[in-house]
């Protein structure tokens, strides 16, 4: 093909691609194929998963408002996303408009060339007819060359007609792009007050207000237990595993203590993931064997019951030394007052939002549970509460916000059956079931940071989620 034909073919190929792209992409850009541009009223709607929810449900006997606050799954609201999508759409339309302008200039330039070429072809055709009528006066060779050139140019005539049509289409596209840009600019102006930066500031402000509200929440009351989530299968039938509720968010170390007696080895893992994969970071050899499975890690130290005694040991992981030890006066030990499953579980050490606790039984309290709040540094008993619940009838127990929750069994069908509030020195019978999936629980402790129960369930390390009921403190509360 000659150079003019090559040039024209390239232009027509570009036109075809642009026409195809415009027909397929433009509808999706402006929302004609699957969605449509909505009004500003519609843009203000936020689905439940995208916004905070505050439910006011009731008032307690003292007239305090009881509320439920549900946090969003994501921090950014839908209007933020729609505003960002609108800006992206405007940018695409503007880029497309610029491309159309460039194409339009090229089209007009080439179109003028085509028109000129068309005129030349028509003149050539007329001249050819004249020459054909008078061909006897010309040499046969010259006639044949001229005829071949004409035959080569004849197929361009219908192509030129199509080119005219495509040039009109480009002009139409240019006008539609201009109209679309005007519409989108108008929409952006309508919701301009809700641009990204302002939306972000509003979300941050709302989060701060809700955090302030959370600070006013009183300690929660246990309402529900869900799960379990099986984290790992390891060790013997009895054991303990835990994290530190006072550790920072970046500190997710896990400690693992297999068996309920005749052991002094504590294994440390940097994270839950390392714990699951078995990648130990450190091993500690305690100076004494422990008794039971009711140990607790609190503020960087391990608290455990020394074997065959009622002595509590505080051991520092950082220094590898015993920082304190103290006898828990009158506390039964060595399977005198264990939980129903035995295992030297006489003394149960635990922590909650308030501090460090010891749960045990004494002869003076007829074998019923005694709750003692401990000084975390000296292990001194700060205050004690005597309950009427037999320690040997309890499957396991844990503290949440100063309230002791006791399960009725360590076997299948276990539920939280009894609770005792140290704030009011009162008890109540409860009925909060949970799924004892592996039929034998030998450790059950609450972690205030994770708001979860850690459990050792027949050689399975599992987690239970808890639902707590909160009351917002008023100015009259002390």
UniProtKB/TrEMBL annotation:
Residues 218-470 form the Olfactomedin-like domain. SUPFAM superfamilies: YVTN repeat-like/Quinoprotein amine dehydrogenase. Residues 79-141, 170-216 form a coiled coil. Disulfide bonds join 219-401. SMART domains: OLF (SM00284). GO terms for cellular component: extracellular space; synapse. One of its GO terms (biological process) is signal transduction. This is NOE3 protein. It comes from Edolisoma coerulescens. The gene is Olfm3.
